[in-house]
Design a protein that fits this description.
Layout lengths: L27 H5 L10 H4 L5 H4 L1 E4 L3 E5 L9 E5 L11 H22 L3 E5 L16 E6 L7 H5 L8 H11 L7
Antiparallel strand pairs: 1-2, 2-3, 3-5, 4-5
Length: 183
Amino acid sequence: MDDSELEKSSDFAAVPDAFQRLWTPHRMVYIENNQRPDTGECPFCVAPTLSDEKGLIVARGKHAYVLLNLFPYNSGHLLVCPYRHVAMYDDATPEEVGEIASLTQTAMRVLREVSHCDGFNIGMNQGRLAGAGVADHLHQHIVPRWATDSNFFPIIAETKALPQLLGDVRTTVAAAWPATANQ
């Protein structure tokens, strides 16, 4: 598509204003599906059965894997999940806990390298009442943060502006993931 095919506000009847518009039509699927498509299947059990690209998987370990959050808070928002369908952290095996911790450390190093983030929010919401979107399958969030990532969208419009597409982020993070960390 070249510039002559792009919609311009001057093509429509209106009085121009000083506001910039952030058009994100690809996000309508989330709105139309009440924020999360519900297929009845556990997305963290389905993801490892797909190709890494389709499942947004960045790295696979023996007991756990890393994937991009389909509903990211920031670009590079990763999740670390055990393969086993287990709901609570204290139900995970020592091997699962150990690999979740190791993958989390590697994810932090990789995100710091590729996105130059200034810090992280890391955590787990245990149970639906605690805020877990997928309460039945344990997952840890790794959210990269930057000193300049605050803006008015989340407060005023309940919207996050994400500068990168999920597929592009997955490709970048997966390419930077050290091969020895997957064993």
